[in-house]
Amino acid sequence: MMNTVHVSHVGRVRSVNEDSAWIRHLDQGYILGIVADGMGGHLAGDTASRLAVETVSDDLSVLEPGLSEASLSAALSDAILHANEVIYRTAAGDEKLHNMGTTVVALLMSNASGIIGHIGDSRAYKITGDKVVQLTDDHTLVNELYKNGQISEEETHVHPLKNVVTRALGTDEDVSVDLYPVILEAGDVIMLCSDGLSNLVSSVQMATVIGQSDLPLSERADRLLQLALLAGGDDNITVALFEMPAGPLSVVEEGVES
């Protein structure tokens, strides 16, 4: 049974939760999860993330069963690009929504294999035992500086421009989607999260919490959220977890928002 859960919290500083999250077991046998972190302030940010989730989930809910990995990858990319078009067009038609945008990280699973689609600085991780691997590459100014050798890894955590995103959904008419194939084995966990979690919870903490397989997945998700709150909770916090079981696949899903 594939166990899934998502939780979201406004945090300790913000007055509005601009994150959106969604997980479903689609009728065709696929599992789809999406985390989006909106930008643009009150109304605009939460509108952008909501439109991203609604568009991607609506587009992929009509997939044919038994598609190949290449077809699933193309479908996920097309859905995210459609969301970009919807958000960009909506912003252009409403002055209050001008320049709104959102990150997006989405997982489309078929049995034990899947595709991750990504734009922005929300992340996907794969956790195997005590090993945590970041699957996505942040589209941020600080990450570009780090990759070019201009700052150290330590400086990326404290750089004054660490929240500047270089690629987002809905801010430009054209955007490119990063796609990553993923294969899960028994006990593996995929985590999607907004930067409200990844900026405040270390990979060691992630592995420690998620590795407590005797705890329900919902409790592990809540413990991650609480760690981010204890570390300051200076942003909205969202986490979605997907755990590959040892036995035959079916789905248990939970969701909490506060």
Automatic annotation (TrEMBL):
Residues 4-244 form the PPM-type phosphatase domain. Transmembrane segments: none annotated. SUPFAM superfamilies: PP2C-like (SSF81606). Pfam families: PP2C_2. CDD domains: PP2Cc. SMART domains: PP2C_SIG, PP2Cc. Signal peptide: none annotated. InterPro entries: PP2C, PPM-type-like_dom_sf, PPM-type_phosphatase-like_dom. It comes from the Bacteria. NCBIfam families: Stp1_PP2C_phos. This is Stp1/IreP family PP2C-type Ser/Thr phosphatase.
